[in-house]
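Ligand-bound model needed. flavin-adenine dinucleotide.
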Amino acid sequence: MTGSTDHLDVIVVGAGPAGCAAAYDLADAGLSVRLLDRKSFPRPKPCAGAVTVKALKRLRYSIAPVVRYVARDLEVTLRGERVRHFRSRHPVIAMTVREELDTFCLEATRARGADFRITRDIAEIIEDESGVTLVTSEGDSLRAAFIVGADGANSRVRKLIGDARVARAWALEGDVDARSAKALRVTRFDFAQVANGYGWVFPKGDHLNVGLYARSPEAAFGPADVIGYARQVLGTEDVGRIVGHPLGVGGETYAPARRVFLTGDAAGGAEPMLGEGIHNAIKSGQLAAEAIVGEVRGGVDAQTTYRRRLKAIRADLRACAMASDWFYRRQPRGFRGLSNRVARTSLMRGFAAGKTFHDIFWTFPLSPFYAIDPVETLAQFERESGQVASELAITRAG
Ligand SMILES: Cc1cc2nc3c(=O)[nH]c(=O)nc-3n(C[C@H](O)[C@H](O)[C@H](O)COP(=O)(O)OP(=O)(O)OC[C@H]3O[C@@H](n4cnc5c(N)ncnc54)[C@H](O)[C@@H]3O)c2cc1C
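Prediction:
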């Protein structure tokens, strides 16, 4: 990896959405940044790749080149019955394939000045008064003023600094060739498809991504259940590449250490209701970067800044945790609450405006007045594809 003489401003471990967001802003501010990942890119990452408007608004650049479909309308059911249509005049989700999204973001981050390297296993993280040293299993060491742990739900950085607070959710996903699926071209959520969770179908142009999510790691489902779900909603058992992965949840209790900041799933940043994690990964990465730049450039204690700035994420995670407790424990009443006309309209307007769940919950009477600002990714996608999202999905599916 490197010799022990290097002294950097920041080492970022993990080049997913959290790590790239942090490294991008750190490099942009002129700090020396080493971005480490144990994998070379492109690499697969189990994820449905749905990027919400609030996440798109956070990104410093357009990701239009890797958007495959833009969803405006959602179909939401309780175990395939009681179908409710959540409609929006404006886009609410950009569908991507994570392998493509992550490679695109990594390239943008490297172009901004972050030095990307593949790392061996990390054996030790030693923090002292003036900095922090990372030691690999081969004995290489690297020293920096700060480390950003962005290495996902199974975070090695988190384990090495002895932070055991993060809980886990679980999800499994696979792909169905759009030609072999019956004509479902909508973004669909089937709640109660599994205990404490839901099934999804997300269009990606030439294929559909199908999967199952549960907000607890004891989820009693496996690949056969994903295949059964695909048979039920898409009329095919031909599901390729079924993979599962935990999600890091419970970040409402996370408090940063002095020089090692956890971000994204490593900090429990995925919300437990739907398992959306990309938004908080990007946001926490950017907040960690902002705090570090403040200390390196202006001498303002980064730990205090990061802890304070995380308040908004913690509030949102708490709201999502309360809502998901209420929702999943009270089916079908929870489903009725979610899908009544007022909730549907507020949620869709809030999603299109890029609001967090917390903000929608506390301001839903104002939802008709939420401003829908232009988002460059969505504008570029429409300009370059020359088609509205639904037409594009059908065309690509042939
Ligand atoms: C099946 C599934 C579907 C999902 N669908 C969605 C969705 O549609 N929308 C959404 O918003 N969220 C979704 N999520 C959640 C989302 O994937 C995560 O919340 C998000 O990826 C977290 O980003 P991150 O950067 O924190 O971590 P990750 O994306 O997990 O990135 C971590 C990076 O760290 C690297 N790494 C790991 N360990 C080490 C190590 N020891 N040393 C060096 N590098 C290491 C990994 O290779 C990886 O590149 C889904 C999750 C799953 C499991």
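The domain at 168-248 is CATH 3.30.9.10 (D-Amino Acid Oxidase; Chain A, domain 2).
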